[in-house]
Design brief:
With about 60 residues, the protein is mainly α. The chain has 2 helices and no strands.
């Protein structure tokens, strides 16, 4: 399935907005970095993005 450039850009903007919102709400940047790294590691290990994140998978 091909992903169009505008879809990637829109997703990037949404992620950036979410990260800014979390930081403005007091979530420390180091926590956000850790979350992103953990999810990236999980996705890299699995080879796909799970459609549901189960606690038993983490």
């Amino acid at each position: 399935m091909a992903v169009e450039l505008n879809e990637i850009e829109e997703t990037e903007v949404e992620l950036e907005d979410w990260l800014v919102e979390q930081a403005e709400n007091g979530v420390p940047e180091i926590v956000l970095i850790g979350l992103l790294r953990d999810y990236a590691d999980d996705i890299e290990h699995l080879g796909y993005v799970p459609r549901m994140w189960g606690h038993s998978d983490r």
